[in-house]
Amino acid sequence: MKKISFVLSPLFSFTLISLSASLSTTSFAAPMMSVELMSSSAAAGNFSSSSSSNSVSISAAQAKKNLQATRAYYQSLIAPHSKRGAELTMLMTMLPKGGDIHHHYTGALYAEVYLDWVATQGYCVYRENNATAKQEKFRIEVKAINDPELAKNCWKPETIRKDNLFYRELLMTWSDLDFDTHTHQQLPPDQQFFNTFGYFGAVSKFNTNAGLRSLKERAQAENQQYLETMLKSAPITENAEFSARLDAITAKNSLATPSAKALDVSELHAIFAAYSSFLAKDKAAQDAIAAYVEEVNQDTKDIDSADFDLRVQTYVSRNSTPGKTFAGLYAAFAASERNPKIVGINIVGPEHGLIALRDYQLHMHMFGYLKTLFPKARLAMHAGELNLGLVAPEYLQSHIRDALEIAGAERIGHGVDIAYEKDAVQLLAALKQRKAAIEINLTSNSFILGVKEANHPVTLYLRHGIPVVISSDDMGVSRNNLSNEYILFASRYQPNYDQLKSIVYNSIRYSFMSDADKQKHLRLLDQKFLQFEAKVAGLK
Question: Which pTM does this prediction carry?
Answer without folding.
Answer: 0.87
